Amino acid sequence: MAVEEIHAEMVSSVWKVLVQPGAPVAAGDTLVILESMKMEIPVLTERSGVVHEMHVVEGEVLQEGDLIATVTHG
């Protein structure tokens, strides 16, 4: 079973969390929406699987590289 770690690509805040642990996801599904410099940035999963853990909450400020979620595949 493979685990995909999804990290923040820039300093941003968590605007909306769209999935919860245990939720099935398809490749390209949006997990969270981040906000940076008044822009909304969707964070997507690359492969289908199941959300294992969410490491963020709405309103949280993230630094580049912070872990957002883990998704298990296979």
UniProtKB/TrEMBL annotation:
The keyword Nucleotide-binding is assigned to this record: no
Matches recorded under Gene3D superfamilies: 2.40.50.100
SUPFAM superfamilies given in the database record: Single hybrid motif
Classification via Pfam families: Biotin_lipoyl (PF00364)
Record has Methyltransferase as a keyword: no
Highest rank taxon of the organism: Bacteria
Domain annotation Lipoyl-binding: ranges: 1-72
NCBIfam families per UniProt: PRK05889.1
Name this protein carries in UniProt: Biotin-dependent enzyme
Organism: Blastococcus colisei
